[in-house]
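Predict structure. Chain length: 192.
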Amino acid sequence: MAGEYAVLSNGARLYAERHETDGAKVTLYSTTGSTEMDASLVVRFEAEDGVAQPPKPAVAPAPAKSVNLTEIIDNAARKYGLPPAFVRAVVAAESGFRADAVSPKGAVGLMQLMPSTARELGADPKIAEQNVDAGTRYLRDLLLKYDSHAYRALAAYNAGPGAVDKYHGVPPYRETQNYILNVLRHWKPAGD
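Prediction complete.
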């Protein structure tokens, strides 16, 4: 079965085996998981063989994010010494700022913590504050482990530290590479 590319408004192309549109959200699926994003960021889909698929219908913009949620994320970022915009970008890539998000693999909440990881970090992943605190602490720990190399830390957050260690860097997984691009696309460092 041939896959497709989601062509984003910034020109980036993200590979997916298939996609689903649900209101203002698009979910891109691959064999190793899924990535959800605002549908307004996708300009079109192209078949893997390069033939453009018909443009998707226009969707209403997503509602504004809760100030309270932004405060939760920014407070956790400052607590662990990370740029708030960086943590917001991870949350955007992981869950599209949806506290109720659950991935096909069972990752939960805003920062898509696996239940086992949440337990190790002493957090209930279904509670937004605990999810963001634990996810931000885990992200900080990965940045420390990989000497502040953001690509490696993001790859480890997505694919696990074992994969990063095995490949001595970002593993050759399309999903992980697209995930890093997705985080970087959301990251707007000015103003932190």
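Summary: The longest helix spans residues 128-145.
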